[in-house]
Structure formats: structure tokens, C-alpha cells
Write a structure and sequence with these properties.
Elements: E1 15-19, H1 22-29, E2 34-35, E3 53-58, E4 61-67, H2 73-86, E5 92-101, E6 117-125, E7 129-131, E8 136-138, H3 151-161, H4 163-186, E9 238-245, H5 253-263, E10 265-269, H6 272-276, E11 281-289, H7 300-315, H8 327-332
Parallel strand pairs: 1-4, 1-5, 5-11, 6-9, 9-10
Antiparallel strand pairs: 2-3, 3-4, 5-10, 6-11, 7-8
Helix pairs in contact: 1-7, 4-7
Organism: Colletotrichum chrysophilum
GO molecular function, one term: catalytic activity
Protein name: Phosphorylase superfamily protein
Length: about 375
């Protein structure tokens, strides 16, 4: 993979990664095969863009990485707008990091455990609405909802929703995860990215509030899970679905389950809603807690590295678009152009008009 030509300008970058926490950013850097800015920044940024960027290569893709100054929708929205002003050729942005997961119904097919990874199919602003004295009413009209993903992203996710595509992505993630865990040790990273033992993955009944000082006193409130006894648990499973996003940290099992049932939500996080309409994006986040009152940070490093592994595995299978080439140069190199009867200015699929020419093998349809 080392034969990818180094980018000459910001327009050569088609992929962006965005992280909200330093922990997530550190994990994302391990996904890079090569960094373009080891000897200093080469690409700059547009005026009034406050973001700081790390640039490099993941597989066959030039990738720009940004760390948000703060958590939340406002920070991610502003950073995404600035990112797009500097990197105008972006086709896909991935918001990578950690989230709170919805544990599921309890059968092994959809049983989510800590360390699994969620990918957004759509984003729901769960804290946008009106607070009445006795209830909260979420705004849910066509004018309030976030837009759907573009066709390129929908086509990508359709593959990974299939058994074949998801299985291949999970196997790729497992392979990448092992490699970048070794890389972290080799680089003497201070963060330890090993998977915590199953005994550290505890799910309580939704209505139970954490009142006890030790686990022994909570035994009657724990929910058993089949996957924790499975030797295959060490490899993250991938879930694709609706992700809830808002500035409110979800720490209620009852509220989590109610929203999940109403809207088909599989996870909660805080930045996706801000980015969603600014730039073509998907959310890829590792499950570090169950979005209830029993939150802790023990699983954050592993969840972050799992998300970075899925991101890298996904990009290794993300198909690049052909670049338009000047017809004269393609003819001199033996290229054959298909002729159409268009005439006029602008981008042409023929030989008779002014503007950029396309050879047959570079035509793509959207």
C-alpha cells in the first residue's frame, strides 16, 4: 500500500475522520498507515478555519483527521463547516469514538455488549423538543428531522447490512484490531487498549438505580447475557441502525429503553447531530457503557480502539471514484474515449465541447 502518491493539495483528500475526545483521537491515529505531516504541516487551512488537522494515509485513501475543541452538537457543527471550507473535495466524513449502547432484547442475535461497534444509518436529535411540566415532547416533523444520507453512503451501508457484508467487515475489524493493539504497544502508548474481562461488563435492569457500594449486593439486579460466556466475545460485533444524538448525556435505563422502542435507536452520543447536515458522514462508535446510571470509563479505551478498527476496515473496502483525466493525456497513453453527441461548455462526455473530458472507464453514476 506504500505506493499511494502523496497528496499535492487539500483537494486530494476525500476522507475525513472527526473525534470529540483526546482518547478517541489517540485511537484513530493508530489506524493510519502513514502520516503526511510528520515533518510539519504541508496543506494549511482556509481563512477563519480554527481546526487543527493531522493528515495521512489509511489504506488507499488520503485522510484528514480533526479533534473537536469541545463535546456536543455546537462544537461538531462549527468544526464540520470549517473542515468542509478547507477540504472541499471530501466525499465522506466518519465521526469515530465511543458511545452508550442499547443492550437489546436479550436474545443472542441482537444482544449488544460492551466493546461492540455501532454504525449510524440515520441520526435522531433526541433532546430537540418542548419541556412541559409533566413530560418532554420531542419535535418530530419533517422540518425538524435531520436529512437522510446521500446515495453513496446509503449504498455503502446497504452492503454492510447484509450478512455477507457485515461478516466480512467484522472479520476485517478483528484482524485490524489485533494489529493496531500491537502497534500501540510498539509505540509505547500510555493508554492500554486491551479488552477488559467479561466480569467488568455488567448490565442492570432498566429501573434499577445504583445504590450499592459493591457488586455482591447487586446480584439480583443484573441481567445475564449469553455472549459473555462465548469465547468469540473477544471480537466486536457490528450493529447498524438509528443513533440518537444530543447535548444531554443519557444516564437513565428507563428513558433509554423508551426512546429506543419508539425510534429504533441502538446507541446514544453527542456530536452526530451537529455534523449530519454539514457534511456527508456516518458515525462509527464503540460501546463503552449502556447509557444508564451505572456509567464508568473502564471500557472507553477498548471501545475507542474497536471503533478505530472498524473505521480502518471499512475504509480498506471503500471504493474510490475514478478521477477525470484530460482527453489529450488519455489519448497519448492509449486511453479510448466513448463519444457522445453533446456540444457546449462545461464538463463533457464527448470530444466536441469545451471543458473537462472523461474517458469511458472513469464515468460514474450517482
Amino acid at each position: 500500500m506504500g505506493d499511494l502518491a502523496q497528496p499535492q493539495c487539500r483537494e486530494d483528500f476525500k476522507i475525513a475522520l472527526v473525534c470529540a475526545l483526546s482518547l478517541e483521537y489517540d485511537a484513530a491515529t493508530l489506524a493510519f498507515d502513514e502520516l503526511w505531516d510528520e515533518n510539519g504541516d504541508r496543506f494549511g487551512r482556509s481563512q477563519n478555519d480554527p481546526n487543527n488537522y493531522t493528515t495521512g494515509r489509511i489504506g488507499r485513501h488520503n485522510v484528514v483527521l480533526a479533534l473537536l475543541p469541545n463535546m456536543g452538537k455546537t462544537s461538531s457543527s462549527g468544526a464540520a463547516a470549517a473542515l468542509r471550507s478547507s477540504y472541499t473535495g471530501l466525499k465522506l466524513a466518519i465521526l469515530a469514538g465511543v458511545c452508550g449502547g442499547v443492550p437489546g432484547s436479550g436474545d443472542e442475535v441482537d444482544e449488544m455488549i460492551l466493546g461492540d461497534v455501532v454504525i449510524s444509518k440515520s441520526v435522531i436529535q433526541f433532546d430537540l423538543g418542548r419541556q412541559y411540566p409533566d413530560k418532554f415532547s420531542r419535535k418530530d416533523t419533517i422540518h425538524d428531522n435531520l436529512g437522510r444520507s446521500n446515495l453513496d453512503i446509503r449504498s455503502l451501508l446497504a452492503v454492510y447490512e447484509s450478512d455477507f457484508g457485515r461478516g466480512r467487515l467484522e472479520r476485517g475489524c478483528a484482524d485490524v484490531l489485533e494489529k493496531i493493539q500491537r502497534k500501540a504497544v510498539k509505540e509505547r502508548r500510555r493508554t492500554r487498549y486491551g479488552r477488559p474481562p467479561p466480569s467488568e461488563d455488567t448490565l442492570f435492569k432498566s429501573a434499577y438505580l445504583h445504590l450499592h457500594q459493591n457488586w455482591e449486593q447487586t446480584g439480583g439486579h443484573l441481567v445475564p447475557r449469553d455472549r459473555l460466556a462465548d469465547s468469540e466475545t473477544q471480537s466486536p460485533q457490528i450493529f447498524i441502525g438509528n443513533v440518537a444524538s444530543g447535548d444531554t448525556v443519557m444516564k437513565s435505563g428507563d428513558r433509554r429503553d423508551k426512546l429506543a422502542q419508539e425510534h429504533g435507536i441502538i446507541a446514544f452520543e453527542m456530536e452526530g447531530a451537529g455534523m449530519w447536515d454539514q457534511i456527508p458522514c456516518i458515525i462509527v462508535k464503540g460501546v463503552c457503557d449502556y447509557a444508564d446510571s451505572h456509567k464508568n470509563k473502564k471500557w472507553q479505551p477498548y471501545a475507542a480502539i474497536a471503533a478505530a478498527s472498524v473505521t480502518k476496515a471499512l475504509l480498506e473496502r471503500y471504493i474510490q471514484e475514478d478521477k477525470p483525466r484530460d482527453l489529450d493525456s488519455s489519448s497519448s497513453s492509449g486511453g479510448v474515449a466513448r463519444q457522445f453527441n453533446n456540444t457546449g461548455n462545461g464538463t463533457q462526455k464527448n470530444n466536441s465541447g469545451a471543458g473537462k473530458q472523461y474517458v469511458a472507464e472513469t464515468m460514474t453514476f450517482h
